[in-house]
Amino acid sequence: QVQLQESGPGLVKPSQTLSLTCTVSGGSITTNYYYRSWIRQPPGKGLEWMGAISYSGDTYYSPSLKSRTSIFRDTSKNQFTLQLSSVTPEDTAVYYCAIGRIVQGDYWGQGTQVTVSS
Questions:
Q1: Is residue 116 a contact partner of residue 89, using CB atoms and an 8 Å limit?
Q2: With the C-alpha atoms ordered 99, 104, 13, 43, is the resulting torsion angle positive or negative?
Q3: Within the chain, which residues score under 50 in pLDDT?
C-alpha cells in the first residue's frame, strides 16, 4: 500500500523559504514512474496545484507560483521536496504531496499545516 508523509516546519517567517519533503513508501516499480506533485489548500479556499516533477526530472509549475517554486527529487530516498521562496501570510495553507496523475494525484499524503507569520 502506497503511503506518503509530508515533513517540514509548521511555522515560517515572512520572506523566508518554505521547504517541505514528502517521503513515499510502499510503492512499486510502477509508482516510481508516477508524477510527484504538491498541492495546497489555504484556509477557506479550494485546492491549488503548485507543481510536479516527473520520473525523468522534468518539472512543471503553476504559472502563478512558477517564479517562487522549485521541486526536487531524491530517488535514492524515495523523497521529493518543495521549496517556496519569499513567502507571505497568503502562503499559509495545508500542503499536500501526491503521486500519480500530474494534477489530481492518485495517492495523497495526509497534509501538513504551514503558517507564515512573524
A1: yes
A2: negative
A3: none
